[in-house]
User: Which sequence fits this backbone?
């Protein structure tokens, strides 16, 4: 009797344990699902909820009000897909447009693979349902190469706004104006102002903030050395954790700066020099970097004074303590100032049912006020020059200034993330593995790189993807 | 008639097992060993030879952590269970405190210990303010393998000792006081009571506790992921990473099968080794 009772207790405990584990696993999976890909900022980072006034009307849309008709367009986007971002799009971004023009918009958050498949089948069947596509440059490049996109130059110029030359340039593909630049994102260095007390000789705060030719990777090394000598602190930090974006620093910042390319010169002698440099720099990097996924917290805790990360992932450090930090451009290497620019664009597929309504939406989405609304709520940066003027003060200004200083540096070497689809993870892992074997485990770069270069080339062969700029320029 | 009803009664359990265990298992085998309809060893080849694969390290660290965590927490849980066998003031409160970690998920436990042990965490701040150390002790980072293993073990022991404790405590409660009293009447020493009465009688509980904990130890993931990222690769973490980051579905399935294989083997060994011999004593 007793025994049976005892057993049932432990069985009950067993059931409770299993339940707890299941709940923990579910929590963990949800946590994992939230992780920001490099292109969509973490939803958790969409900190400031601002009740923004609806952007004011401009001339271009006044004509629209005359022809108020019940039109519903489909806007398929691979961007702003996370739940919080979709909520922003549906509740804040699009309603003013519908109110103004009478055009209803169905926002469809979709993965790149699904969009590509859907577009292909619609093109083949001749029944196009999508009116407007929002996607990254790489995806739009592919669609344009297939001849699926409309030449947007037929709609003429958008009033009261201008795009940075680099964005204008990239949006012209295969002889047509393939898309209108919509949003951008990038990765920057954030400096705790305390670090400026330990600048090495010959480097000024102005050099760093403006990104002059004195702000180089060698200067960064000297600076880190000088901080360590003065404070004993390993002041640099990078997000090398498993969900961190450190691989973007390797292929989009160091590689272009030292070798002029992301992929082509992967195992060149310039690359060997780059890895030797990084190994030396690593003496001044906080060793806990290998566990960090995002740099906002280490910056706020004071674990590091200089950190590199995606703008969305450091935004909260700047909004929390705007007086403490500055956002600065990436340093330059022997081949230029390499940095990644993530460009999202808006395109209209050929045969779209409502191209004029879609163009009106493009006009609305690229208004400076709308772009500021997007920046404030989801952390994507504007693609039009006039938007930065619309932000006057506050933490966002610090971010926008840093980003625009990086964008306008004369020795810019823009790197775009290649569109490898599901193989993107392996692309990143190649650089991370090289880092682990060379910098963390102390292997010779000459021994490690050739084998990994084969893996890298295989990825591009298997997927048929184009080498990304600056390799392909 | 009777037989039919028996089948009917086990049908829900059977269906559950078929749908949630057998079917995924078959799918996992298919993912791991078949590609385009044909048999393939490419996933095994990847596991053993690819520069991306952390399989050998994952295996090593999973076993290392298990080997540290299970004995220590079992010993601790046993000690606490024996201490709490006797009634005293504040026993209920103590009981409650020991069980609290049971309610905390592994991720939360990982986060708690991370904020304690990180270079600007509670531990370092306390030690610095007490003047014990001048510089914070770094625990996390790829160069501190053993410190991280220690931190993981600490967090895991703290979190899962409660499970072992609850099971052992339930077992120990079942031991009649008359048995202990009788032993005392016959002049049994503490040692005798421990090894001749208590331990043999809680063997079934010990068996379930060890079984459950060892099986879960091979699935350790959340705590490691939070505290050490991929610096300390473990089997379940690698399965997750291969699946979500690298989209190697076959390799992830292979990891799952390996974990299942290890669990089954160890489960069988435990059941064989710890078969209770003294159950008839009070049956």
Assistant:
């Amino acid at each position: 009797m007793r025994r049976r009772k005892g057993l049932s207790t432990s069985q009950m405990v067993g059931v409770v344990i299993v339940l707890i584990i299941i709940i923990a696993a579910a929590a963990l999976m949800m946590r994992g699902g939230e992780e920001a890909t490099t292109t969509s900022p973490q939803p958790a980072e969409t900190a400031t909820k601002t009740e923004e006034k609806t952007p004011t009307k401009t001339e271009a849309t006044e004509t629209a009000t005359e022809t108020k008709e019940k039109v519903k367009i489909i806007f398929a986007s691979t961007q702003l897909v996370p739940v919080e971002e979709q909520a922003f799009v549906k509740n804040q971004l699009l309603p003013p447009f519908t109110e103004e023009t009478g055009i209803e918009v169905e926002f469809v958050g979709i993965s790149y693979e699904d969009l590509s498949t859907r577009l292909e089948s619609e093109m083949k069947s001749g029944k196009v349902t999508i009116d407007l596509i929002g996607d990254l440059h790489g995806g739009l490049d592919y669609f344009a190469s297939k001849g699926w996109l409309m030449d947007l130059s037929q709609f003429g110029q958008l009033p009261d706004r201008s795009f940075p030359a680099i964005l204008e340039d990239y949006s012209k593909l295969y002889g047509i104006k393939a898309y209108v630049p919509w949003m951008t994102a990038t990765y920057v260095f954030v400096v705790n102002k305390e670090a400026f007390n330990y600048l090495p000789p010959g480097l000024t705060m102005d050099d760093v903030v403006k990104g002059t030719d004195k702000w180089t990777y060698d200067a960064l090394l000297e600076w880190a050395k000088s901080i360590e000598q003065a404070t004993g602190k390993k002041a640099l930090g990078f997000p090398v954790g498993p969900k961190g974006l450190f691989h973007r620093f390797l292929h989009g910042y160091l590689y272009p700066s030292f070798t002029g390319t992301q992929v082509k010169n992967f195992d060149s002698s310039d690359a060997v020099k780059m890895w030797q440099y990084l190994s030396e720099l690593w003496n001044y990097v906080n060793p806990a970097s290998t566990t960090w996924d995002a740099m906002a917290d280490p910056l706020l805790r004071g674990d590091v004074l200089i950190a590199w990360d995606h703008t969305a992932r450091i935004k909260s450090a700047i909004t929390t303590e705007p007086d403490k930090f500055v956002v600065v451009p990436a340093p330059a290497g022997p081949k230029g100032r390499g940095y990644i620019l993530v460009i999202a664009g808006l395109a209209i597929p050929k045969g779209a049912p409502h191209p004029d309504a879609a163009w009106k939406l493009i006009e609305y989405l690229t208004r400076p006020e709308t772009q500021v609304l997007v920046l404030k709520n989801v952390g994507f940066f504007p693609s039009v020059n006039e938007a930065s003027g619309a932000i006057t003060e506050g933490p966002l200004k610090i971010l926008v200034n840093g980003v625009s200083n990086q964008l306008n540096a004369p020795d810019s070497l823009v790197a775009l993330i290649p569109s490898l689809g599901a193989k993107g993870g392996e692309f990143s892992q190649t650089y991370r593995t090289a880092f682990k074997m060379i910098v963390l485990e102390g292997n010779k770069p000459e021994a490690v790189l050739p084998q990994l270069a084969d893996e890298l080339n295989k990825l591009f062969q298997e997927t048929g993807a184009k080498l990304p700029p600056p390799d392909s320029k | 008639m009777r037989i039919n009803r028996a089948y009917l009664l086990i049908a829900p359990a059977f269906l559950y097992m078929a749908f949630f265990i057998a079917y995924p298992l078959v799918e996992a085998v298919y993912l791991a060993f078949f590609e385009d309809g044909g048999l393939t060893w490419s996933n095994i080849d990847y596991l053993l030879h690819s520069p991306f694969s952390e399989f050998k390290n994952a295996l090593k660290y999973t076993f290392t952590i298990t080997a540290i965590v299970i004995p220590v927490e079992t010993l601790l849980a046993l000690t606490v269970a024996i201490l709490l066998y006797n009634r005293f003031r504040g026993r209920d409160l103590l009981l409650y405190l020991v069980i609290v970690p049971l309610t905390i998920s592994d991720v939360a436990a990982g986060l708690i210990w991370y904020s304690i042990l990180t270079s600007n965490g509670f531990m370092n701040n306390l030690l610095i303010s007490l003047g014990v150390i001048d510089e914070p002790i770094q625990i996390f980072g790829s160069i501190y393998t053993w410190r991280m293993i220690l931190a993981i073990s600490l967090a895991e022991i703290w979190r899962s000792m409660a499970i072992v404790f609850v099971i052992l405590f339930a077992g120990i409660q079942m031991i009649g006081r008359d048995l202990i009293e009788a032993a005392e009447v016959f002049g049994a020493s503490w040692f005798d009571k421990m090894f001749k009465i208590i331990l043999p009688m809680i063997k079934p509980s010990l068996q379930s506790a060890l079984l459950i904990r060892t099986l879960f130890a091979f699935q350790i993931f959340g705590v490691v992921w939070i505290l050490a990222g991929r610096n300390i690769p473990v089997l379940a973490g690698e399965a997750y990473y291969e699946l979500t980051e690298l989209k190697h579905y076959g390799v992830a399935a292979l990891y799952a099968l390996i974990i299942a294989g290890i669990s089954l083997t160890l489960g069988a060994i435990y059941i064989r080794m710890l078969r209770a011999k003294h159950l008839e004593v009070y049956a």
